[in-house]
Design a protein that fits this description.
By secondary structure, the chain is an all-alpha fold. It folds into two domains: about 1-65; about 70-145, Cytochrome Bc1 Complex, Chain D, domain 2 (Orthogonal Bundle), CATH 1.10.760.10. It is about 65% helix and about 0% strand. It binds heme C. The site of heme C has 26 residues, from helix 3, helix 4, helix 5 and helix 6. Belongs to the cytochrome c family. PetJ subfamily. Its main location: plastid.
Length: about 160
């Protein structure tokens, strides 16, 4: 169950890397075509350098994207099934709004309590410790806390 929920996340990283790799191939082909077509002002050497720069940049960007913790993405992948739009499909009312958390979250509405529940779960909610990385748990805590007074403020 936990594995199933966790799986799409790593697939996503692979997808980003794959997509970037494909883009790089397209870029190289495009730049090579430019380099070897006669009616072009820039010399092939310049274009080749541009191709190399483009590829290196693309790989670096892809690595950064795959590594960066994206809370919105983590939320949609792992939490969205039960907390779609910040709500709660399993237990009505136990949403991610500040007012709901003040009422239902053990320890009240604060980051420690949010982090505790993400790590340990509660009732039907699974524990995410060991499923999400430490960095991801921290990022989710901050993000949920933030959303609870903004996007999820009026979800009930
Ligand atoms: C399988 C369904 C399920 C998934 C997946 C899930 N939750 Fe929950 N979550 C619940 C349920 C049910 C509750 C209410 C528990 C209770 O109060 O008894 C809850 C409550 C919460 C609360 C407290 C809300 C309140 O009003 O008390 C937070 C914060 C929370 N979840 C965050 C998350 C985060 C972040 C994720 C993803 C990493 C996540 N949940 C994934 C089912 C889920």
């Amino acid at each position: 169950m936990y594995q199933q929920i966790g799986a799409p996340k790593s697939n996503m990283k692979k997808f980003v890397l794959m997509a970037s790799a494909c883009l790089n191939v397209v870029l190289v082909i495009a730049l090579c075509m430019t380099a070897f077509s006669g009616n072009n002002l820039s010399s092939p050497a310049v274009s080749r350098r541009a191709a190399v720069t483009g590829v290196t940049g693309g790989i670096l960007a892809a690595t950064r994207m795959a590594r960066a913790v994206d809370p919105t993405n983590i939320f949609e992948t792992n939490c969205g099934a039960c907390h779609q739009g910040g709500g709660n499909n399993i237990i009505t009312g136990h949403t991610l709004s500040k007012t709901a958390m003040e009422q239902y979250l053990d320890g009240g509405w604060n980051k420690e309590a949010i982090e505790y529940q993400i790590r340990n779960g509660k009732g039907p909610m699974p524990a995410w410790e060991g499923v999400l990385s430490e960095e991801e748990i921290k990022a989710m805590t901050d993000w949920v806390y933030e959303q609870s007074t903004t996007a999820f403020k009026d979800i009930n």
